[in-house]
Design brief:
The chain is 81% helix and 0% strand. By secondary structure, it is mainly α. The chain has one domain.
């Protein structure tokens, strides 16, 4: 694993954990009513996507279980369509996609510690 890939994967993991933690004990309605929360969660998801975008193609091919295209696409949508973010999609991402991503990244990073 290239050192830069390891750093990017760690950034993805840290940001995913942050987004999950920001929403702990919160509801979907909180995204509508708490602008600071929304900005924090959206930024964390953007970081996940930006880091994924910077992971080498070789690394992406090595770990096809990570939905690289979807992650990067969401980052582009959030950054370039900032004025029209669908908070239902953000909520769904946090509720359904981030924990499996966290688990996968933890395994990848743990398995590459010994390499």
């Amino acid at each position: 694993m290239k050192p830069d890939d390891r750093v990017r994967l760690q950034h993805m993991l840290d940001a995913a954990r942050d987004a999950v933690e920001f929403m702990r004990g919160r509801s979907r309605a909180d995204l509508d009513n708490d602008r600071q929360l929304t900005l924090a969660v959206v930024k964390a998801i953007e970081i996940i996507g930006e880091a994924a975008y910077r992971v080498s193609e070789q690394m992406r091919l090595q770990y096809p279980q990570i939905p690289w295209v979807d992650i990067i696409g969401m980052r582009h949508r959030l950054v370039h369509g900032y004025y029209d973010i669908d908070l239902d999609v953000v909520w769904s991402t946090i509720q359904h996609d981030l924990q499996p991503l966290i688990s996968d990244l933890e395994v990848i990073l743990q398995n590459t510690d010994s390499v």
